[in-house]
Structures are given as structure tokens and as C-alpha cells.
Amino acid sequence: MNIVLNIISELYPIIYGLLIIISSLKILKQYRKTSEIINWLLMIYLLPILGLIIWFFIGKIYLNNRRKQIAKKVWSITESWMYDLKKIKYIFESKNSKVAKSLFKLCNYRQGILGVKSNEIRLLHNTTDVINTLIQDIKLAKKNIEMVFYIWNPGGIADDVAKALIYSAKKGIHCRLILDAAGSLKFFHSPWLNMMQQSGIKIVKSLKLNLLKMFFRRIDIRQHRKIILIDNYITYTGSMNLVDPYLFKKSYKIGQWIDLMIRIEGPLAITMGIVYSCDWEMETEKKILPKINKHKNLILKKKKCYPIIQAIPSGPGFPKNMIHRTLLVAIYSARKKITITTPYFIPSHELLNAICIVSKKGIEVNIIIPLYSDSFLVKWASKYFFNKLLDSGVNIYQFQKGLLHTKSILIDEQLSLIGTANLDMRSIWLNFEITLAIDNQLFAKQLKCIHNYYVSQSKLLDYKTWKVRSFWKKLIEKIFYLCSPLL
Fold it and tell me: Is 412 a catalytic residue?
């Protein structure tokens, strides 16, 4: 026994040193961004063994081979389907406003599709209105209902949506539901799972949690989209999970969750249906591409000006770094004013620089974030960026009336970005997300009103007060900033 221990003790430094060298070389090869390279290298050097374990499980591997193969297969089929869709030219628009032109050009180049005209678009910022409108649409559905959510937390108004789905399913409506395995853990352990399945609703658990799978893919990639599709004509998306905002994480004592959802009628549901069908096939290997019907879901009402919308999906299998490039192009397109709302602010080096550069050019930049957060790590790590932002003239507003969960950007009161992606590393690089780019002045004015309300419920971070904060607070910010690749 002593001999074995002696051999282990002698070999340990050599094996550990080799692992450090191999990991370092892989990090240098895999990551292009200097800040990420430094953060990961510091982690494996400063946290013996633990740093290597963290990198192995969540820093090294992206998707397993099965999912990669399915993703390639899905897109090859989708491309031919999109070719037929693009023949219906009247639903697309090639002309955009000056501020939106570059972004829509990027989307067309990377995704192969122009912006889509829409009949009606509504901003819903009151949770009660969202749920009531959604339940009405579910009960009036005639053919199909598709949903994907990161979190479905039973209780309160979430149960009302479940009852409406059961009602429609029993009428013969085809209902499909994709829920993230980690985010919706409580749902999968609740009676609602069996009740909904017994009514005929097909429910898929996305990215299942399995100890063995930790060795074959990153375990922290999550299905973070929030999409509802009804009859291939009505689309919902935004920041709201299927939770009761008064009950969700009540023990955190951070107040009500504040969200924003969009309800859209028209051809956008078809393009969003492509995203949903890809997600469904990734999990089930079954194809459910939406049917194209020129006489029903592709009808455009006669209007002088249509909202032009581009759906921008991201995540493994979708165009690489699309959310990051979208954000950069949108920010640099600004000429007058930018307003950003996000619950979690851990920007990349490039995004931080872009925000600071446009602010220094004299463009008004406002960032609205929650004063209270459900993530202790993110709360402190995000503060690390405040110095540079304030030095560049950026206004930082801290929302005080609950947890502001809305993810939105408004540029020059013309171009709006709304969706599921936070301004953090996880949303930018890893998760399955969806963002809508909306080129329409009337819609932008509505979003501006909501932003003004958020500002009225916030306090502006004072530059002088921030500069004289205590040394230990500055130290904590720097320590948690080193964890930014994990946040």
C-alpha cells in the first residue's frame, strides 16, 4: 500500500503538469478572445484541480456528435424548404431604414432570408394582459400550437395556461411543447406533466440532465428560447417564462419579475416555425416544418407601412456568433440614442468597447438594469464594467420595483431588438436564444414609452458616489469578474 501511495505521490506532479500544459494549449487554440483566454488560464492555474474540472465540464466541449449530425441534416432540409418560401416575394422587404439597413443586410447574408412584413404587432408589458391574451389565442386555435420555454414553473397563472392547452388538446388541436430540462425541473416533477400528456399534448424535455453526458457535451448549454406559435399565423416571444411573476423565486425577496412580450400576426410565424422545427428535430429526430399556405398564413392586410421583422436565432447548429454580431452592428449603427435593458450585464470586450465608443461620440446611451438580482455572482461581476461605462458618459439606471427581466435595445427610436438573450456570456455564446429585429417607427415609439416607465422607476447611478465606494467592494467586483466566462 505504501509503495502504491509513493508511486502516486511521485507521478501526481507529472500528470497534473501535463494536464495543465494540454489544457492551456487547447484553450489557446479554442478561444479567440484575449479576455476569455486569460480568464480560463487564470482559473486552471489559480484553482488547482478544481479549475481543470470546471474547464473540462463547461469550457471544453460544445455539442455531442449526435446533435452535430442532426443539426447538419436539419439545415440541409431547411434550406430547400426556405428556397420555396422565398419564391413568395410579396411577404419580404428588401428596403430598410438607415439605422436598420446594415443589420438586416447582415441577417440576409448570414441567414439567407430578408426581413418579413407583418400584419399586426403588439407590445405586452403587463403579465396579466400577456396571459389573458395568450389563453384566448390558445382556446381559439384551429390547428396547431407549438411552444418552447426555458422555465415552466407550476403555480398561479402558469396553471391557467396549462388548463387552456389541455382544453385545446382535447378538442383535437395538435399541441407540442419543448421545455428545458434544467429550467423546467419543477414542471417535470409536478402532476401537470401527466395531466397534459394524457390530454394529447406532446412534451419534450430539452437537453436532458445526465451525469454520463457531461463527458460528451457542455452541461451548461440551455434551451433559453421563449416562443409560442399558433396556427402558423400568431407568434409570441420575449423575456417571459411560464411562471407567475408574484410567486416565482419569492424567497429571494427581490420583488415581482418585470417582463416584455410581443404578439405578432402574419408571415413571421412561418419563419419562426423554421426555428421551432429545428429545435424539435434536434430533440426527437422528427420533422415538423410548417406548411406554407398562401391563402391563409401568408396573407398580408393592406397597409401603408408594414413592420419589417427579422428573426435571429442563435445556439449550436445555427449561424455562429449571430447574436454577438447583431448586437455590435446595431450599436454601431446608432446616430442619436441607444437604450438597453437587461437583467444580467456581463458584456464581451467588443460589446463593452462598442457601447463606450458610441457614447464618447456624443450618442446618448442608457443602460437599465435591476437594482436587485437573483444571481449574487452576476450582481457583483457586472459592477466591474461600471467604471468604464461611467467614464465614457453612459447613463446607468438601476430599476427598483422588482427584477427587471426585459431584454431589449432601442436605437434612434426606429430599430428595436427584443427577445430572450441577456447581455452576458451565456446568452451571447452558448444558449439557444431568439431575438427579433423590428424596423418600424411606430413600434419603436411604444417601446420608448415602456423604457421611459422603467427609467421613472429607477435611480441613476451617481458617478461621484460610485468612484468613492469602499476598497473591499472593488476587490469583490474584480474577483467575480474573473468568473465571467461561467456566468
Answer: yes
Residue 231 is among the residues annotated as catalytic for this protein: yes
Residues whose CB is less than 8 angstroms from the CB of residue 2 and which lie 6 or more positions away in sequence, other chains included = none
Cβ atoms 37, 484 nearer than 8 A = no
405 catalytic? Reply is yes
Between CA 169 and CA 143 the distance in angstroms is 10
CA distance 239 to 259: 6
3-state class of 370 per DSSP?
A: strand
**Catalytic-labelled residue, pool 137, 180, 231, 424:** 231
Backbone angles phi, psi at 228, to 5 degrees: -130, 130
- In the residue annotation, 259 being an active-site residue is answered as no
Q: Which of 18-22, 69-73, 262-266 has the highest mean pLDDT?
A: 262-266
210-231 confidence digits (pLDDT tens): 655 554 555 668 899 999 999 9
Lowest-confidence segment of 49-53, 88-92, 235-239, 402-406 by average pLDDT: 49-53
Under a CB-based contact definition with an 8 Å cutoff, are residues 296 and 106 in contact? no
d(CA 202, CA 174): 8
Using a CB cutoff of 8 Å and minimum separation of 24, what contacts does 80-89 make?
81/274, 81/289, 82/112, 82/113, 82/274, 84/292, 85/113, 85/270, 85/271, 85/292, 86/113, 86/114, 88/292, 88/294, 88/298
User: 82-86, 116-120, 342-346: which has the minimum mean pLDDT?
Assistant: 82-86
How far apart, in whole angstroms, are the C-alpha atoms of residue 467 and residue 462?
9
Q: Which of 117, 125, 205, 224 is catalytic?
A: 224
Distance of CA 204 to the CA centre of its chain: 19
294 flagged as catalytic? no
Out of 2.30.30.240, 3.90.1030.10, 3.30.1050.10, 3.30.870.10, select the CATH number for domain 322-486: 3.30.870.10
Q: Cβ distance 241 to 152 under 8 Å?
A: yes
Q: What is the CA angle 39-210-61, rounded to 5?
A: 35
Residues 6+ apart with CB under 8 A from 69: none
**Which CATH architecture group holds 65-314?**
2-Layer Sandwich (3.30)
SS3 of 298, please? coil
Q: Mind listing the pLDDT tens digit for each residue in 58-74?
A: 665 455 555 556 666 66
Number of DSSP helices (H) and strands (E) in the chain, helices first: 18, 19
